Amino acid sequence: MAGNEDRTGPVSQDPDAAEKLKNEANEFFKRQNYNRAIELYTQAIEKNPMSAVYYANRSISNLRLENFGYALNDASKAIELDKLYTKAYYRRAAAYMALGKYKLALKDFEYVTKVRPNDHDAKMKYNECNKIVKKIAFEKAISVDKKEVNIADTINLDAMTIEDEYEGPSLEDGKVTLKFVKDLMEYYKEQKKLHKKYAYKILLDVKAYFQKQPSLVDIKVPDDKKFTVCGDIHGQFYDLMNIFKLNGLPSDTNPYLFNGDFVDRGSFSVECIFTLFSFKLLYPDHFFMSRGNHETLDMNRVYGFRGEVTSKYTSQMADLFTELYNWLPLAHCINGRVLVMHGGLFSKDDVTLEDIRNVDRNKQPPEDGIMCELLWSDPQPMAGRSPSKRGVGCQFGPNVTAAFLQKNGLDYIIRSHEVKNDGYEVAHDGKCITVFSAPNYCDTMGNLGAFITMNGKDLKPHFTSYEAVPHPDVKPMAYAHSLLSMFCQ
């Protein structure tokens, strides 16, 4: 993936050539080839490093690729070059919002409204962001008052009635069955909604299960058995159905691990998560789920999941999801030889599997440390470590991967978290594999999705790539916060 590094050394300035490069980059941006656009904006900056527009354009390209750290840096540089350039403040505010730093975003909007008091668009963005800041402050005040209350404890299933007209899937004696899951998937394909009583029962049962699990789950795969690892799904329910069509439904003999980011961005996240949770309850020892960076409150608030749950059910259920996600395991180790996590490795050496196993995970991820980096970090081709392009976690090189594997007696790691053109990427001399299972991510990226299969004996990864399938006309980010949609759609 293209970076933001500006090459050092003397560069001959050529504003005309820079403008041509910028115009070419704009065309690639329009075609949603953001990596190529970034490369060309970078070349334009080399030819004319004093143009705020070039930095702001590279910033929005990085926003589209979720490189929030790079986007933040570029927007700040654009502001440094032109303090009156409103777009740069908007770009930086979007990056701050994506990172959950709403008060800093509000400051940028506030500055624009002062500089341009008659700009109605700026005033509207300021007011929208201010609403979020006030809402979060209100939620925090309530949570302090109700510190000891678990949402799960407040749910009264007995008070919920199944109406006579409900014709959807039903739990059998309160339990998930194979018939229930199959009926549920068909019901969802017709864009119908599971009854709230069954939805709540699934959530309560799944939460109770995950509360008993360690932060690092050990998986044993017999020598002659297949095991499948899937990456990000991001609310793309119809592509999830395609995975099961290609690779078979989960079962005792067809186990799966889904490696985080089940929700957000795609507008069928509710359908995805209830399908996955149903399989977890049906096959608890043969269906596994890891926490991703999008199974968190800040991400869900901005990228659509919280809005979707509130729209399809209630805000109380959205709160229950937040509570439940805190209990999702952070990593899985297959046969003691392959470690699977959503993000990546660590900013410090000497981290052990036991350190991961001992993480107290029942919380929102902190901004640094083992838990944060398991969810957020990314590999890089060069040796050593670098600050994260995302603004959270770190970037780690092949030597970091090799040292971690050697210390912990592992063969390789599997992680997800990044869009890849083929749905997967093998890096770090085969020791760091990325798998991403949401094809044509956000209906814009044009990438394939992929999953990994292996057997328990040699654990050699085999890759299956696939294209996106059609879905009903509900756009990605349909439930996302309107303010972020203004920047990122």
Task: Please provide a written account of the structure.
Belongs to the PPP phosphatase family. PP-5 (PP-T) subfamily. With 489 residues, this protein is of the alpha/beta class. The protein has 19 helices and 14 strands. The strands form three sheets. The protein has a six-stranded mixed β-sheet with strand order 1-5-6-10-12-11. The radius of gyration is 23 Å and the shape is globular. It starts with 14 loop residues before the first helix and ends with a helix.
Comma- or semicolon-separated keywords:
Calcineurin-like_PHP, 19 helices, single chain, 489 residues, 14 strands, five-stranded mixed beta sheet, six-stranded mixed beta sheet, alpha/beta
- Kindly report the spatial arrangement of strands forming the biggest sheet: 1-5-6-10-12-11
Extended strand count: 14
Which structural category fits the helices and strands? alpha/beta
Low-pLDDT ranges: none
Number of helices: 19
Strand content: 5-15%
The amount of helix comes to 40-55%
Question: Whole-number average pLDDT?
Answer: 93
Task: Give the overall form.
Answer: globular
How much is the radius of gyration in Å? 23 Å
Largest sheet: 6 strands, mixed
Query: CA-to-CA gap between the ends?
Result: 20 Å
